[in-house]
Structure formats: C-alpha cells, structure tokens
Amino acid sequence: MAKKGSSKRHYSGHEALDSALTELRTSISSGDVLRAEMQASFLLSLPLLSNGSQAAYGLLADALIDRAEAWGDVPEGAAFLRLLTALGPRPVKRRASEGLANYTDAGIYPPEWVSGIGKPSPGRAYRGRDVFGDREVILVTFSYQDAEHALFVILDLAELPTVVSVDLTMDVSRLLKFFEVGGELVERLEPVALSEARRRIEVPLARAGGDPDVELGEDTLLTLPLARSRVRRLPAPEPGPAISYTAADRAAAVGDFLDSPEAADAGEPDVARFWAQALTGYSGRVPDEPPGQVGRHRLDAALLNYVASTFTLSAGQLSGLEPAVTAWVRWAAHRQGLNEAATSTLMTHLAAALGEFQAACDDPGNVAARGYVRDVARPDADATWLAECRARRELAAPRPEHRDRHCEGIDAADPDGRAVLIASEFGSCEPDGMPKADFLAAAMRVAEELWRDEPATTWQRGKGLLAEGHDRHDVIHLLVEPRYGVKTPPAR
Q: Which DSSP state fits 115?
C-alpha cells in the first residue's frame, strides 16, 4: 500500500494503545460491530484520561494511523480507520480519512459489514428524575438487527446539566426492570420522544470531559466517543427556543415566598428577601427549570458554591442565614410537591450545609472569586450572567492559583492590580513583529476590554478561542496580535 507522508510519531499511552488494538483487531476479524465500536471508543478516549487537549488528540491520531499502517495491506486496517472516522473527534477523523484514502488508492477496501458502523437503529427513549429534580436519567435503546443495546446517561442538574456517568449495556431488560422497582427517593422512568432525549443529553455529552473541576469515572470517559456517536443517530429536536424564565418570573417567586406562611419564620424582612432572591435566582438559571426549585445537590451548589463565591455578606445577612434559608427551603419543598419523607431528608441535608457555610465563605478560592464580581453581584441578578461575567474577567486577570507566587494577594478588581498581573505574566514574552513595550501595552488594553466588556466583541472572540482549546495565556496573545499582523502566539 502506498503511504503518503508517513513518519514516526510518539504517543505517551502506547502500551495501553497496543493492548487495546490487539483486542480490537480480533473483534474486527470476527465482524462484531458493537464490540468493535466499544473498543474503538476506548482508544479514542485515551486523551480524556490525561488532559483531553487538541494536541493530545493530534498525537493520538498520528499514533493510531501508524498502528493501522503497521497492520499492512489488509482489510482489517481499512476497517479500523473506518471506525475512527465514525467515532473520532475532528483531528482523528481527518487523519483517519487520509489514511483510508491510502488503502482505497491501493485497491484495499474494508469488509462489507463496516458500512453499518455507527448506524444502529434508534428504538425507545425514557426519562426519569430523583424526587428532588437534582438528577436526571436518560435511557435510549438502539439495535443492530436483533441485537439491542442501551445508552444510559445520568445528568446532574444542580448547576448546569452535567454528565455524571455514561454507560452502554446490552442487558436492556434488566436495566428497565431496575427502574420499574425504583426506590424511596427515585422516580420511575417515563417514555419520551427520541428527539427530546437528544435535546437533553447532546450538549452535556459534548462538554463532558472538558471541565477539570468535574471528575468523571474512567468507564464514563471510555464510553464518551461512542455515546456521542449514538446521539447523532437520534432525530433532531424540534426547532424553537427552550423555555426560559425571566427576572420577572424570579421576582414573582420571591414575592410568593414572602407572602407565604413559611416566611413568618424567616426573620428580618430585608434579610429574608436577600436570601430568597439569591436562592430563587440560582434555582431558576437552567432552561426548563422554573425558579424556586430545591434539592440536596441544588442546596450545596447554591449555598456552598454560588453564594459563597459571589456575595460579600453583611453581618446581618450572616446572622439571618439560618432562619431565612430554612423558611425558603420549606416553602420551596411545599411548592415542589415533595412528600414528608423527601422533605425530612432535605431538611436534614440543609442542616449539614448550613454547618459548612462559613468554612465555604472563608475558603481562599471563594474569597478571591468574590472579588471578580463584587461590583455587580446583586442578589436578584441573573446567575448565568454572573457566571459569564466571572469567566470573562478571569480571562482578563488570572485567579490567584494561576499567578506567580508574589502576585497571589493582588486584588484583580483594582485596575492597578490588573496592570501588575499583566506585567508579571507577559513581561518575559518575546512576540515576533512588535516591540515588547507595545505588546505589554496592548495586552493591558485587552485585559481592560475584557474586564469591562467594552467592546463585547473582545470577549466573544476570547470565548471562541477558549472553546477551540487554547489556554488563557495564548488567548491574550491571539487577541493582541491580530491587531499587529502576528499570526501565532510565541513559544513560552
């Protein structure tokens, strides 16, 4: 077979790679489509077990092509590359397509069964939640001829819909029977349209593995490439925006609480309003989720993450925390229709969260995080907007843990402090095509544009560069250098 541009490359996971390839070749030789897909998914998820960067995927793509070429002029090699084009991310797809063209040019074609790779027939879809609405499960069945299997995704809804675990099982009946029994705090699965199942899991699956703060099990990481491929087999969701709740909806929910019997035990009225606004605003930030939702995971996320990292609390707000939040949680539980057992569980969990609250507020990371939104953090503000604001400003000025040690105590909200941070981070950079002093001045201007969101296009471009896999240091370079005709960030 003619090899175009072949070269020796290195991938750090070569031992695991070779072992998995041996098993995969056996499955390919036997024509076992599903097993071959599952084993290929393992190969393609190897970068996720480290950092999942674009560079790691590029190295993996090169290593996989090398192994395929080492198999020689055989149909199994072509079948392997066909698997990679069906399941792999963009860098792998591109290299696999090039390699497959080499086989075709040499007159070597994959076995006929590979035309079905990644094309199982969707069957049924189900959705279920725990009684609090904190977690959601989506189950979708697929089949190759008479062989049925199921994709099973668990989502955490406490902050954004976030993948908790992903599994692929061939024992569909046993899985469905498990949910028929249910449990004291678990609701049964209900049928949903295939398009609705796709709407609920497609974006969380696309994000999964990319957030270093969300720890996923190895089995989930190994299944992600195949899970994403399965979702593409489902019908597209119906066009139209998801249900969103506005500031008026949040204000109405707060008003309902303040007029409720539970509010009589909430303490000082202004303090009760503050806590109701903060908790109601956080609970309604996810599309389809009305304000006033409450659950164990939501309570932890709202109190120990959102409030602790967002609001600088007064002495009165701190002293009024327990009665106000306790009253709001009882109101929300009643509004949500939780039964006595679920409400009791929720109140026990609340007591534990309240006990941890002061430590969360004093955590150095949360202290620093509050500084990034101190001037805009109102209790009735949109929680999603506040999160976006913090992300934008963290691009402008790195968090303390990402700074030089002598800069860890600098207040990023102070313009003079931001100038010191920029000088510390970029002072040793040697950009091509512009004087160092000009580069530093431009980097400071970009940081100020990001902090103030003026013009908004700076953040939009920065956000796009982050999504492409660039780290924040290189994003600042790339935001500066187009203005000076420099096309790539310099090596550091």
A: G
